[in-house]
Amino acid sequence: MTSLPNRTSLRAPVRAIAFDLDGTLVDSAADLMHASNALLAELGRPPVDLPAVRSFIGDGVAKLVERVLAATGGLPGAEETAAHTRRFLAIYEADPSAHSALYPGVAETLTALSAAGLKLGVCTNKPMAATRRLLADLGIADRFTAVVGGDSFPTRKPSPEPVLGLLALMDIRPEETVFVGDNEHDVAAARAAGVARVLVLRYGYARVPLESLPHDGILERFGALTGALSAASAC
User: Fold this and answer.
1) Could you point out which of 17, 116, 136, 161 has its C-alpha 20 to 30 Å from the C-alpha of 124?
2) Residues 140 and 180 in one domain
3) Percent of the chain predicted with pLDDT > 90
4) What residues sit in the active site (predicted)?
C-alpha cells in the first residue's frame, strides 16, 4: 500500500467497512459497454469501446447514458434522453453480470473480514435492482449487512446521504467505519459523512489522479486491505 499521512485519526475501534461496487469490488465495464452498444445499435449510432465506457462510469446510470449519447452523435432533449436511459436499464438489468467479474482477492478478503467480526456494506451509484443481481450472481451477496444503491436516496455520491444511510442501516457510527472506493466521488462522500478512514484502489475508474484526493491510503490490490486495516489499528 502507498499511503499519505493520515488525515483522520481512528478514535473508535473499526467495526465496519463500506465499499463502493463498480471499480472496487467488481469490474463491470464490459457489461456496461455491451448494454450501451445494444442501445446504440437500436438508435443507429456507432458503438463505444471499453476505454470510453470506463471513463463514463461513476455518476450513476443517467450520467453514463448521457455520456454515451454525447460521444456518439450528440445528446437529445431531456425527455428523449430519459427514454433512452430507461431502455438502457431494461437491457442492462436483464443480465448485468454476463461479462463482469470480481477483482482478484475480493471474495477471499471479504470472507476474512466478515469472519473477523466486521460488518460489511455496499454504497454504490448503480441502481439497486442491478446491484443486488450482480452481487448475487458473483456469489458475494451474503457477505454484506446492508446495501444501498443510486436510487435508494434522493441524492447519490458524492453526496454523503447514501453513506450515512448505509451506516444507519448497519447501526454503525461514521467514526467506527472505513470506506473503500476507487474514485473521487467515493472520497468526497465518505469525507463529508465523517467516516474514520478512506482508502482508494489503484485499479478502478477514477477520472482524476488518486494522489490529488484527500484519502488515507492507496491500495494497489484488494487483498492489501487486511494489512492496511491491521496497520491502522496498530497506530
Assistant:
1) 116
2) yes
3) 90
4) 20
Number of domains present in the structure of the chain: 2
The domain containing residue 75 runs over which residues? 29-94
| Residue range 176-217, pLDDT digits in tens | 999 999 999 999 999 999 999 999 999 999 999 999 999 999
Pair (116, 222) in one structural domain: yes
The SS3 assignment for 208 reads: coil
Please indicate if the annotation marks 20 as binding a ligand.
yes
Q: Is there a binding annotation on residue 171?
A: no
Give the torsion through C-alpha atoms of 78, 82, 87, 91, to 10 deg.
120
Domain presence at residue 166? yes
Q: How far apart are the first and last CA of the chain?
A: 16
> Do the beta carbons of residue 180 and residue 199 sit within 8 Å?
yes
Look up residue 124 and give its DSSP letter. -
Is 142 annotated as ligand-binding? no
